[in-house]
């Protein structure tokens, strides 16, 4: 066996275990476990106590965690909901987000904080779909028109942000035009794969075999999903695109093909168990270990970037929610804006790419991640309070008058 130590990975998994456990024992602390995981990584990492470092085993598992995080995010997208007025509002809102983000990026470059306004705009343009959905569930709004509209806007933002990041800021040396051709080729290949898998899945014999093996030690559906994930990630890298795009598209394809879950009700639960039970927490704890918090603490001027980036999130992603004003009441629109401005996983991913490509300093990346932490802690709580007091009659499934 190779001379590899698993001490650091053990420490990371212990943190991943204790973070949600402590929050479960203290229900008054209403923020996601991911916040505590990143903070704990900072505390035990090189920037603070120095107990844990990112070695080879931790890096490999964290990379798998990032892939699985994007895979599960793609799995959350319900393509059947993206149609009609909901899709138009989501697309228009994202266009407004990108324009606002570019304006913010130009302003930040003028004061010398960033080098690439485009990267800042894309980093601020995503919404954490995995954090928005639980909040809407807690408020009993997920199945209402407000919930579906907010989820659709978050889905479009996540998908578009990942595509733009892979297209414009990939680590490959290819030009943007070449990457666009590669992206289109990759999209065609993904669509072809989805059609082929859908066609093969219609086989009665194969379907019976999958049902027979899905809950045995074979776990055949889970294995097939993992193969699709790894295949799309490998293809994305071969096409010179970011691996996160392949992971996200794999999740979207699995979600699209998984239409009838009656024969396999535990399939998604098993996938979430692999991701959220092991791989994804390791990625977030590792992100805390790599966070350049020392640069922020040593430079008080740099520390002021955190509230500025948090406000930028609220402006760039929150203001486009005003487009919902013709359909929902004021409180509902404010809640939707706060939820749209809730972002952390994509910020962590985009800032890491920015640091690796030399377009973003470690201090700026740390400030943006801290701003994302603030958004996760503050925005969903405020949105939940607004949703609980918002009028229910304007959030029903009934169509708006101008849509009838």
What this model shows, in words?
The chain has a single domain (7-403), classed as Na+/H+ antiporter like fold. It has 404 residues and is mainly α. The model is unreliable at 393-404 (pLDDT under 50). The protein has helices spanning 7-25, 33-44, 56-76, 84-110, 117-123, 129-138, 145-168, 176-200, 204-213, 220-238, 243-257, 267-290, 293-298, 300-303, 305-318, 330-340, 345-356, 362-389. The chain contains 18 helices and no strands. Helix 1 (7-25) crosses helix 2 and helix 3 crosses helix 11. The chain starts with 6 loop residues before the first helix and ends in a 15-residue tail after the last helix.
Secondary structure topology:
Layout: H1 7-25, H2 33-44, H3 56-76, H4 84-110, H5 117-123, H6 129-138, H7 145-168, H8 176-200, H9 204-213, H10 220-238, H11 243-257, H12 267-290, H13 293-298, H14 300-303, H15 305-318, H16 330-340, H17 345-356, H18 362-389
């Amino acid at each position: 066996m190779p001379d590899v130590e698993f001490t650091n990975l053990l420490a990371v998994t212990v943190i991943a275990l204790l973070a949600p456990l402590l929050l479960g024992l203290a229900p008054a602390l209403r923020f996601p476990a991911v916040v505590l995981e990143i903070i704990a990584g900072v505390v035990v990492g090189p920037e603070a106590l120095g107990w844990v470092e990112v070695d080879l085993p931790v890096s490999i598992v964290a990379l798998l965690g990032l892939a699985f995080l994007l895979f599960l995010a793609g799995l959350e997208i319900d393509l059947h909901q993206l149609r009609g007025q909901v899709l138009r509002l989501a697309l228009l809102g994202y266009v407004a987000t990108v324009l606002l983000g570019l304006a913010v990026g130009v302003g930040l470059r003028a004061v010398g904080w960033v080098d690439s306004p485009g990267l800042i705009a894309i980093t601020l343009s995503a919404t954490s779909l995995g954090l928005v959905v639980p909040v809407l569930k807690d408020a009993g709004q997920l199945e209402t028109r407000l919930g579906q509209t907010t989820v659709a806007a978050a889905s479009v933002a996540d998908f578009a942000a990942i595509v733009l990041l892979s297209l414009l800021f990939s680590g490959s040396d290819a030009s943007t035009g070449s990457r666009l051709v590669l992206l289109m080729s990759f999209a065609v290949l993904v669509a072809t794969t989805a059609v082929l898998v859908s066609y093969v899945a219609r086989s009665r014999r194969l379907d019976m075999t999958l049902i027979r093996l899905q809950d045995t030690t074979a776990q055949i559906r889970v294995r097939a999903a993992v193969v699709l994930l790894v295949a799309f990630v490998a293809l994305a890298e071969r096409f010179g695109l970011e691996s996160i795009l392949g992971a996200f598209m794999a999740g979207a394809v699995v979600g699209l093909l998984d239409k009838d879950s009656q024969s396999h009700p535990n399939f998604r639960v098993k996938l979430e168990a692999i991701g959220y039970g092991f791989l994804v927490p390791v990625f977030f704890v590792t992100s805390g270990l790599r966070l350049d918090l020392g640069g922020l603490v040593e430079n008080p001027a740099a520390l002021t970037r955190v509230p500025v980036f948090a406000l930028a999130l609220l402006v760039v992603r929150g203001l486009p929610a005003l487009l919902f004003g013709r359909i929902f009441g004021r409180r509902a629109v404010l809640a939707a804006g706060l939820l749209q401005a809730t972002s952390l996983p994509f910020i962590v991913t985009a800032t890491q790419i920015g640091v690796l490509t030399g377009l973003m300093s470690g201090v700026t990346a740390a400030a943006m991640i801290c701003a994302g932490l603030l958004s996760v802690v503050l925005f969903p709580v405020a949105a939940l309070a607004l949703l609980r007091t918002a009028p229910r009659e304007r959030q029903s499934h009934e169509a708006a008058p101008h849509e009838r």
